[in-house]
Each structure stands twice: as structure tokens, then as C-alpha cells.
Design a protein that fits this description.
With 455 residues, this protein is mainly beta. The chain is built from two helices and 28 strands. A four-stranded antiparallel β-sheet has the order 4-3-6-7, with no helix packed on it. The protein has a four-stranded antiparallel β-sheet with strand order 11-10-13-14, with no helix packed on it. The longest helix has 19 residues.
Length: 455
């Protein structure tokens, strides 16, 4: 009898071990990335040929309902079950993995316990500052998050945990962002000449678990050979469109290391939302500039540009900015500024003149692609103060200039809607001689003032 009990016990142990062993079928994870849907995954293990998909069935019960229901949506070619918004609520769930009425794994949870956001992606960095000594630098971190339901609208704010350390250190430094704070995030006082590693994860504020860590980012900037010279980092000087049809961006290489050599710095751009980064379509020879012709120029579309260099096989972003074409319009100066005399007053002391000019040749005024307004500035040659007049045409009068005086006149223009003024045109010097009667009138006026002052 004892022998029969022993045989039964050994068979039971073998059966239970085959069902619940770590090599057997088991539920690996249930996870909700945004608290509106969730997915459960399982492993078939290595026993009893269960690696063939479809043999294992996934069941669930929701809330106080006693009935078990099969997975609402198996994901094709994967051991996963997807619960869309229709099958997702905040009540308790129990799930089980079965084959031929044998339960191989079982667990229960509420939705808040399995919330785990997707991993942040595209972690990168740009140089913010270098100390005057060249021994320390400040950087900015950039990253992106996947487009998750509701989370992208800010309904469930995320906070990010940044971990960083020297690559040869064991201990991670940890910094958390505020809930809902978007990138970039500054990190200060990194030593130049030392390699750092940075990783990132996120969590919904007050709900669930941390995401997996992002890919590790390596940060390194060499220490300058000479730390006696103040450092100027490479930077984007500006981007400008003269006529809203093309544009150009310029940059300064600074004086850091060997970045002053041609093409040590590279210029990249992205156009519109969620677009890939592309390199400059046309580097200008013998110039730190990139030209975008009409093929690459679109108005009412946002552009982002960045200045990068490859140092020790890592991309270093030295500068970055974003804009739309209409915001960087700065026309070329007007040309052919000239004048003619209109009137001289009866006293001969004052004169009116008519100014005229031509718009910049690069501006497509006739077809209405750009509309300009002009600013006329004038002063006497002895004065430092400029008077100004605004005009929307290519000619305009200037009244009450004193005869017998030299004047300097210049002109600039800008797009009516926005953008910056052009540079000034070449200055025009004019002189209106005083007539003999004007000289006599002026002498008489001075004598009157003298006698009046004598009483």
C-alpha cells in the first residue's frame, strides 16, 4: 500500500512540475501603455510541443463576472492578446493560460498596476556652454516619446528620470523632470576629456511603473590643447530668405579644436512634423553656409536646423533652431535711389523733393509673391539724428528741407507682414543751393533776431 502511495505522489510531482515549471507555458507580462488599452503576452515554453501557435488559449474574467471569456483579439503570429478600449476598464481582471482545460498560468490585477509607458526614443544631446577654462561644459538633452493615446494630449502627464555617470563609474546620478515638462533638459558641469553615459526612462505621474530604459547615450568632448584662449563654440549665425522663395543659413565655426577646417562641421535640417533629418542640399564653396533653392523651400511649414560635428564617432549637436520661412524674410536693399526737386518756398529757405527708387531685384513684386514697405531716413550732413518716413510705393516726397544745406538720404525695406528690415541702400548725398533772395531773407532774419535780443 505504501508503495502505491509513493508511486501516486511521484506521478503528481512530475505532472505539476510539467505544468508549472519555468520551462512550461507561462504569462510573461500584462501591460497598458496609456491606461486605455492593454496587452498580455505569454511564452509557450519547451514542453509537449506547445511552441506551435494556437494550441494555448488565453482567457479572462472582468470584475465580478464569474464567466471566463476567451481573448477578444489574438495578435497574429505572436503569443499576445490585445484588449482594446471596449474591453478595458478599471475593474479587476483575472487572466489564465490554458490547454485542454489545464490551466498553466493564472494572475489577477487592476489596470493601474500594469500601466507602463513606452520607452523614450531618439535620445541625443547638444552643447550648451563651455567654461572659459575649457575644462567643463553644459549640455542639453533631447528625446522623443511615442504617440500614445491620450498621453500625447497631456491628459496623463509623464515625468522623466535621467540617469548619468562617467563611463568608468559604478554609481548613477539621478535627476527627475517635473510632470509634463517637455525636452530639452540641461545638465551642468560635465568635465571635458571624460566620457559620460546617459540613459532615460519615464513614468506617468502617480500611476503605474517606469518604462524600460532608453538606449544608452555616450557623451564626450575633448579638452582643448590650450586652455588659455577663451573658447567660442560653433554656432548658427542666422537663416535668411531674401524673397520668400529660397533661403540660406550661415554658421560660425568658433575656435574649438580643428572645427575651423572645411566640412568639419555639417549642417542638417528637417521640414515639417515627424520628418527625418537630412544633410544640407548645397554647401556654398569657401563659405560656412548652406543654400536652399526653391525645391527645398516651402512657406507655412516649420523647419528645424542643427549644426553637428563627428568627434570620436559620436554626433555632437553644437546649435539648433527652428523657424518658418516667413519669419526669416529679410529682403535685399532697394536700388537706384534718386531724387528731383519739386518746389522751393517763396522765401527761398525751404524746398520739397521727390524721392524714387526700385525694389530689390530678387523680390517678386509684380506677381505679388512678396509685398514690401520702405523706410526713408534723412539728416543734414552735420547731424547724427535721422528723421524717417514710411512709404508703401517706390516714390515718396520729402518736404521742408532747408536750402543751402547738404543732406544724406538712405533707404531700406521689409516685408509688410513680418520679418526684418533689409540693409540700407547706398547713401545719397544731396544739396539744394540757396537762391540770392533766400540769402537776403536769411540775413534780414538774423538782423531782426539781433535787434530783438538787444531790446
Amino acid at each position: 500500500m505504501a508503495a502505491l502511495w509513493l508511486i501516486w505522489y511521484l506521478l503528481a510531482v512530475v505532472f505539476i512540475d510539467s505544468v508549472y515549471s519555468s520551462d512550461g507555458p507561462r504569462i510573461t507580462e500584462c501591460r497598458s501603455s496609456e491606461q486605455e488599452t492593454f496587452t498580455c503576452s505569454w511564452s509557450a515554453g519547451h514542453s509537449r510541443n506547445l511552441t506551435d501557435r494556437g494550441q494555448l488559449k488565453f482567457f479572462y474574467t472582468e470584475g465580478k463576472s464569474p464567466s471566463w471569456r476567451e481573448c477578444p483579439e489574438y495578435i497574429a503570429r505572436e503569443n499576445r492578446c490585445y484588449f482594446n478600449q471596449t474591453h478595458t476598464s478599471e475593474t479587476e481582471y483575472c487572466v489564465q493560460l490554458k490547454l485542454d482545460n489545464i490551466t498553466h498560468d493564472h494572475r489577477c490585477f487592476v489596470l493601474a498596476e500594469i500601466v507602463k509607458p513606452d520607452t523614450p526614443i531618439s535620445l541625443n544631446w547638444s552643447l550648451l556652454n563651455i567654461s572659459q577654462s575649457g575644462l567643463f561644459m553644459d549640455i542639453q538633452l533631447w528625446w522623443e516619446v511615442s504617440a500614445e493615446l491620450d498621453a500625447s494630449s497631456g491628459h496623463i502627464p509623464r515625468k522623466f528620470e535621467i540617469q548619468y555617470k562617467p563611463s568608468d563609474a559604478d554609481m548613477w546620478n539621478v535627476m527627475e523632470t517635473s510632470p509634463g515638462q517637455p525636452p530639452p533638459q540641461a545638465l551642468y558641469s560635465f568635465a571635458t576629456g571624460k566620457q559620460y553615459v546617459i540613459r532615460l526612462r519615464c513614468i506617468y505621474h502617480g500611476i503605474g511603473n517606469y518604462s524600460e530604459f532608453s538606449n544608452v547615450l555616450r557623451v564626450f568632448l575633448p579638452t582643448p590643447h590650450s586652455i588659455g584662449v577663451p573658447l567660442e563654440r560653433p554656432s548658427i549665425v542666422g537663416c535668411r530668405s531674401p524673397e520668400q522663395e529660397t533661403f540660406m543659413c550661415r554658421w560660425s565655426p568658433g575656435n574649438y579644436q580643428n572645427l575651423t577646417q572645411p566640412r568639419q562641421l555639417r549642417f542638417f535640417y528637417t521640414k515639417g512634423s515627424n520628418a527625418d533629418w537630412k544633410e544640407c542640399p548645397n554647401y556654398l564653396p569657401d563659405s560656412d553656409a548652406c543654400y536652399f533653392n526653391q525645391t527645398y523651400t516651402s512657406i507655412w511649414v516649420s523647419y528645424c536646423v542643427q549644426l553637428k560635428s563627428v568627434i570620436q564617432d559620436q554626433n555632437i549637436i553644437f546649435d539648433k533652431r527652428c523657424f518658418s520661412i516667413d519669419s526669416i524674410v529679410k529682403p535685399d536693399p532697394p536700388i537706384s535711389l534718386n531724387w528731383t526737386l519739386l518746389n522751393v518756398s517763396q522765401s527761398g529757405l525751404l524746398a520739397d523733393i521727390q524721392m524714387w527708387w526700385e525694389p530689390p531685384p530678387t523680390a517678386d513684386i509684380k506677381n505679388g509673391w512678396i509685398s514690401l514697405k520702405y523706410e526713408i531716413q534723412y539728416r543734414t550732413s552735420e547731424s547724427n539724428h535721422w528723421d524717417s518716413i514710411e512709404s508703401f510705393a517706390t516714390s515718396h516726397p520729402v518736404y521742408a528741407l532747408g536750402t543751402g544745406k547738404s543732406y544724406v538720404i538712405r533707404l531700406r525695406c521689409k516685408q509688410i507682414a513680418n520679418g526684418d528690415f533689409s540693409e540700407f541702400s547706398e547713401a545719397l548725398s544731396i544739396f539744394i543751393p540757396a537762391s540770392p533772395s533766400a540769402e537776403e531773407t536769411g540775413l534780414l532774419f538774423r538782423l531782426i533776431l539781433i535787434f530783438a535780443s538787444l531790446g
